[in-house]
Amino acid sequence: MKNKSMESQMATKRNVSYWHVLKTLIKSEFKVFLNKAADVLIDTGLWILVSVFVSGYIITGHGMPANYLLIAISGLVASAGLMQAYSGIFNLVSDISGDRTISYSLTLPMPSWLVVLNMIVSLSLSAMFCSSIALPVALGLLAYRGELALVAPFKLLIAFVLGNIFWATFSIFMTSITDGPFQIRKVWMRIMFPMWFLGGYGFSWMALSKIAPTFAYFALANPFLYVFESIRCAMLGQEGYLPFWISSGLLFMFIVMFALISIRNLRRRLDFV
Predict the structure, then answer these.
(1) What are the distances in angstroms from CA 165 to CA 30, 121, 129, 257?
(2) How far is CA 64 from each of CA 60, 71, 147, 216, 224, rounded to the nearest angstrom?
(3) I need a labelling partner for 248 at 20 to 30 A (CA). Which of 19, 61, 165, 226 fits?
(4) Which residues contact 47 (CB under 8 A, 6 or more apart)?
């Protein structure tokens, strides 16, 4: 009994140590990100302002319904984290193919899957930072139009967190299957851009189903769709969108799936256990 008790205590201490190391790594990487936060703020802010101007004034001036701006701005809130997560692919692929500073993390006293979890959490936090720049703009526009009551705060928090964790997890997955920096352009042009643009950035699934019903059912296999649908449900109300809890549940499922595949792939690629 004593041996079992000692083993249990040692296991508990190891787990505490693992999480302490993980927390330290995440803090360290987020501090590095904050050093370039001003540039990220300018880049994201400029992208948002240009997009709002085009969507809210130029496109609607050509006959698009006035509420298209709400579709577009909610798409921006969902997409801002993706743009930051995509830049993480370049950084990680370049490191894996070059200096391999990631090797330091692999020498730390914690399981290899926690190294991948550190990548996901760190990238998620930077993605949330970018999304949080777009969110006040979207809420301000809703308030200006007198439609702020449509926002469901609890659902918005869930959609915001899950969406950015998904962007980070999917980006780590893409990192795990990208051979080198020279392949990153192909990753965006052939995989991520089509999934993003056809996944509901500028339209809802309900609208797509009325125009192209066959394609709409194929679109249900695109995980990006559930990021946009859940954000729009939370910001603009349930009517006209896929059920919020179904979108959120599927998003969580995709997060777990891509995280597990990423751990497997990176174990093979980096030769760690």
Answers:
(1) 15, 7, 12, 12
(2) 4, 11, 19, 21, 24
(3) 19
(4) 76, 80, 83
Q: Can you tell me the distance from the alpha carbon of 212 to that of 186, in angstroms, rounded to the nearest whole number?
A: 27
Contact status, residue 230 vs residue 212, Cβ threshold 8 Å: no
218 vs 228: CA distance, rounded Å? 16
Mean pLDDT by 10 residues, the chain (273 residues): 49 62 80 85 89 81 76 90 87 74 66 83 92 92 89 96 96 89 87 94 93 95 97 94 97 96 85 58
Under 8 Å between Cβ of 183 and 97: no
The reported pTM is 0.88
CA proximity to 53, closest of 40, 72, 39: 72
Buried b (16+ CB within 10 A) or exposed e, 109-123: ebeebbbbbbbbbbb
